Amino acid sequence: MKNPILVVLIGMVFLSSFSKAESGDGTGLQLSTAGDIVGSLSKDGKNKLEVREAEFLVFAPIDHYFDGVLNLAAHQENGAALFEIHELTIGSTKLIPRSRFRVGQYFLGIGRLNQFHRHDWVFTSAPKVQSEFLHSEGLNDTGIEYGYLLPIPFYLDLTVGVTNGWVFGHAHTEGSKPYFPTHYARLATYNGLFANGGMQTGINYLGRTDNQGTKTSLFGLDLTAKWKEASVLKFLFQSEGWYRIKTPSSGVSEGAIGFYLFPQYAFTSTLQLGVRFDGFTITTLQDATGAQIANFDYAMVPTLTYKASEFSTIRASYNFKGTRFQGQTINSEQVFELQAVFILGSHPAHDF
Amino acid sequence: MKTSLILFLISVSCAFAKPLKVITSTTDLAWAAREIGKDKVDVTALLAGTENPHYVDTIPEYIRLASEADVVCIIGLELEVGWMPKVLARSGNAQVQPGGKGYCETGKAVTVLEKPTGPVDRSMGDIHVAGNPHFWLSPKSLTEGSQEVLKAFVRVDPAHSKEFEANYKALSTKLEALHKTNQAKLKPYLAALKGPAIIEYHKEFSYFFYAYEIQSLGSIEEKPGVPPSAGRIAEVALTAKSQGIKGAIGGEYAPHKTMERFSELSGVKSFQVPTSIQPKGPWKDYESLQTKLVDTMIEAFSSKSK
Amino acid sequence: MFKKTIQTSLKSLAVLGLLCVLNACGSSSTTSPTFNSVEYVVVNAGTLSATPTNLSGAGSLVFKAPLSQVGSKNSYRVTFTLQDTGSVTLVANSTVALASGVSVKFTRSGNTLNASLITTGGTTDISSRFTGVDASTALTYQVDVHNDESPAHVLLWDSAETSFTTAAARVNSENSGLNALGQGTGTYWGLVLDKATVTAAVLSTAKFSE
What value of ipTM does the predicted structure carry? Predict the structure, then answer.
């Protein structure tokens, strides 16, 4: 869907539908839009301010069983903002007890970051582990996902899904039919920690065999801990660690490990300061003579966030990143990023 | 013989029938639900009574509790709009989702105060379009809202509808008596006042003030949900001082520094009080919560501004 | 007795010193040859003639240092001259044997330059994009291989180009009929020559960013 005229028409339909829903026409239609503006400044970078993403999200019950979601997003590509479908699902939380499912195109329910729209992230840019293993915007595909809350006296939630796997990550081609489609699972639990605090942990798996017979297996652990005081997220710790192994049909497997850690503290009701530490390494890298090559990509990203309300965010971060290769720093970069995010329309959910 | 056996089996099954699993958003609704359901219900409140209910997250444990519930009761009026819809959806429990027989939105039955008229948007702060949701601090409004609890119990467990109705009547009588007792307690102090005597941090005491005919100057917040600027605090402190306000009242989660600063500038004593029942604290039931609020009002009315 | 001890110690020291010298001599023989100051390993010696600035003949080599990972995107600047019916192939993201990679192969037929994209998925003829190029001259191209996409995204610009956009690319494999048919599965890059001379092959970070 890359026709700007079509986009304007769709936008007009949504806005008119929204105004009808607001006057209570019984459809339950909820509409929200999100804007994400990012500017970056670095020695050799683009050094410009851009609309990184504009998103239209429509949600409504379809009938007594099913709900529908449509998420259109535009982001800058080759200097133009092109709208694409990010999510289009029909699903239900009413048909099967303790269960939810959705069918269509969506962001896979795996990991931590991948489950949130990028403008809702607690930092501006994707950590390397996310952009390398999943996608810098989040891994998105078309398939079916099922979630089940286990009937036990503590929270344990299992999500499983299978998607086409013709592409993996952002692509502008149809891709190719894989030998084995993308399939994934996540098991998540939750523990309350002292008053007004809690921690969620998830273990994740994703697999796929592409059309060339290269098998990808991803294993991950995500951990998020929060402590709130009144309306303020006083302390946040968010982290993910992933291990990927790629095995071609002939040739040598490639192993890689990546992680990020993000602690954040709120100094006031509107100001939060966090620092993200990223790490990434290819564990199997060898030179042409078979000698192991030490390599490590790192980043340290201090991040200052100002939230006037839950509907707006202004964020400044300084990304110190570099690559160590065979004991030497071969690449280092410092990027200053400024971000502004806003939400219009329906009240956003307070996800944990 | 056969009839006796059937009757015996029915009575045994009734005796061993599990109580309804009831989840409420707030502790106040939990208290009301227990009053109506008695031993026929097993009630759990998701909140502890110390949180600001506007800003709660979709805690996974809430999802698990909702997945096992027969009835879920919420305040509504957009108080829990940020978290409860997602809790209910992710529970996979059709019965307690909007439209299900176990879904109970108590705000629907309440005579709502401060419903905005005219255009409303977010530049005005965190406005509740359906009206002020903090109704449970008024005994009369809590009685009204509890009708929805009763209806939900009757829908889900019609066999005990008569008991629920009788309990609801008893609750109404109890709350009316509580209201009258508190009115009598406040009367001499209210009679001595010559205008507004109280200012609140956030407009969460509107129903309480309305119930006891206490006049409020307004709120320290200029816009609901928006922390007041230094200029706003100074301005409203000056107004409060000149109008002879006796006390500033805020919930326990109102920012202490703001309340202190207001007191410093206005000479008006500030009070931070519980705004919900706290089962793990001293305000374990509705009566003790109301008593605390009334006693605080009396202390405020009796205080001398600096 | 004392004299004998001294003599024994001196002999030991001499042997130790000789071993050190021999070891030092031995280590210099493990250094790989270089081309444009980058170490490489010969895959197929053939009739390859190599100096630090010139490769010619027929043969293949793989550069010693690997690419950062299989799913990496890099840029390669290659300068070459072809004899009639000769060819040169830039191989990226391949195994150490230069197999299963993403290759751009240039072949000369008279004064005509033919080109193709080769992956394990198949070969795509991109010769139409080189119409009018005189294959008898020295040619330089800047080639991006984005092996983090599937299929690999290959862009090629003329040497004089400074604006590395898709619009300025002589070849963009995302255009219809030019698609690469797969991805590379390795972390090595190298060159395959056949009646060709290569005077430059430089690896850098990808020129085009999505």
Answer: 0.91
